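Page 47, continued from p. 46.
Same chain as before, 315 aa.
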Amino acid sequence: MKILKTFAFLALATISALPVSGQDLLARQAPVDRKMKAVDSVALHRLIEIESYDSPSADLYDDWDNLHAHSRVTELPDTFRISLKNFCMPTTSRVLTSNFGPRWHRQHKGLDIKVYIGDTIRAAFAGKVRVVRYEGRGYGKYVVIRHDNGLETYYAHMSKQLVLEDQEVRAGDPIGLGGNTGRSTGSHLHFETRLCGVALNPALMFDFRNQDVVDDYYIFRKSTYQKESLVATRLRGVGGMSFGATDNIDEEEVELATAAPAASYAQETRFHKVKRGETLYSIAKHRGTTVDAIMKLNHLKKNSKLKAGQILKFN
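Result:
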């Protein structure tokens, strides 16, 4: 007790002994410290907001279910921004064998990509494994992952699963091996992308032939995503750019689905450097947009000649 009293007395004496300027400095520092705490608090709240914005899946789903592949369908938002940054293609295969949409009198809710038994299958984005199961008359050995960007991805017909339920994964982590299990007529990966339990065409976001995503973001629009899905299949599905005579898709709808889908949200314009031999058509195809969109952004005409090294906006 005597030691504590002595220490307190010495501390008080030290402060008292400070020159006036030193005491003034301490007095001035107090409000500065309070301001810094306020700044830190604002910064912390801002960080929380950013993390919530980049990880919106918690706001889209009411439950976490390890038993059922398809989470309970919830109401789709009118518009929703899905971040495609920090992605990994699920497989290095560029060969598509079946499109999203009607097939054999039923709805095929994903893309089929040719893989061989034992090929590595990887997580498309960071997230948490929700389901690891076997379904003999359907998916075979499959994995479902819920991602921070709001999507759930499905990987089916694998020969082996390499992850466990409730496991955290990063984009690119191996989650399984290619196979031919379940209702399958040959080794392949069945890949699905779902939002709020509703299957979306993976071709809206992924370009397997070019091993890339369509942009930094995909803007889901409830009013137009089904039309956009048809266009995406023709741009990035089996057969590519083979518009059928019976398909009622006009140029305006094509542009809506492919011309800079995230431009209104992106923080910067994206550019393409023209290589020797490239055309407006080949650039548009590579960048997942349209010739008309590139022409409008760069004030070009259809007969405009491109030069190697020329810089073009594409969103």
